[in-house]
Amino acid sequence: MDVRELDSDDWPQVWMIIRDVVRAAETFVYDPGMTEEQAYAMWVEQPPGLTVVAVDGRRVLGTAKMGPNRPGPGAHVSTASFMVAADARGGGVGTALCRYALGWARRRGYAGMQFNAVVETNLTAVDLYRRHGFRIVGTVPRAFEHPTEGRVGLHVMYHEFPHPS
C-alpha cells in the first residue's frame, strides 16, 4: 500500500468511499444527502492543505484530507479527516493515513493536530488516534445523531507536537 497525493483519476473511487461513509451516517457530521459536487468541494483541499489516497496499485483503499484547523490565529494547529473503503477496514489503511497526516503536519511546523468531531461510538477511530498520541480534551454530549445508538457525544481530540529545541 502506498499513500500519495490525490490525482484526478482517483476521484471516482474516492467519491464512492465518501458516499458510502456519509450515507451510513455513523462517523461524520456531513449531510447523508451530500452530492458528488458538494463532496468534491468539501474533501479536495487547496494549499496549504492536501488530500491524499492510500492505494494498492490503482485501487483506492482510503483517503485523507489535512490542513490548518482554523484560519488566522488558529492556523498553527492542523486537522485531518480519514475515510476507508468498507472492505479495506482493519487492514492498516487508517493507520497509514493517520501516520502520513501527522508526519505532514510536523514537517510543516504545525504545533499540533486537532480533531473537532470524533463520534464517541467510533471506537476504532478513537483507539487509533489514542495510539498515535491524541487525547480527548472534551466531549460535547449528545451532539451526534447516530442512526442506531441515538444521540451520542462528539469528542474533541488533540495531539500536541513537541516544541523544536
Task: Provide a descriptive summary of the structure in words.
The chain is α+β, with helices and mostly antiparallel strands and 165 residues long. It has a single domain, classed as Gcn5-related N-acetyltransferase (GNAT) (Aminopeptidase, 3-Layer(aba) Sandwich). The protein has four helices and seven strands, in the order βααβββαβαββ. The protein has helices spanning 11-24, 36-43, 93-107, 123-131, and strands at residues 2-5, 50-56, 59-68, 77-84, 112-119, 135-146, 150-160. It has a seven-stranded mixed beta sheet with strand order 1-2-3-4-5-7-6. Helix 3 links the parallel strand 4 (77-84) and strand 5 (112-119). The N and C termini lie far apart (34 Å). The model has no long low-confidence stretch (mean pLDDT 97).
What is the string of helix and strand elements?
A: EHHEEEHEHEE
Name the CATH homologous superfamily.
Answer: Gcn5-related N-acetyltransferase (GNAT)
Number of helices: 4
What is the mean pLDDT?
Answer: 97
Spatial strand sequence of the major β-sheet: 1-2-3-4-5-7-6
Let me know the number of strands.
7
Helix content: 25-40%
Helix/strand/pairing category: alpha+beta
Largest sheet: 7 strands, mixed
How far apart are the first and last residues' alpha carbons, in Å?
34 Å
Please give the CATH architecture: 3-Layer(aba) Sandwich
- Quick one: overall form? globular
Are there runs of 5+ residues with pLDDT below 50, and where?
none
Approximate strand percentage: 35-45%
Domain unit count: 1
Q: Quick one: CATH class?
A: Alpha Beta
- Under CATH, the topology can be stated as Aminopeptidase
Radius of gyration, in Å, reads 15 Å
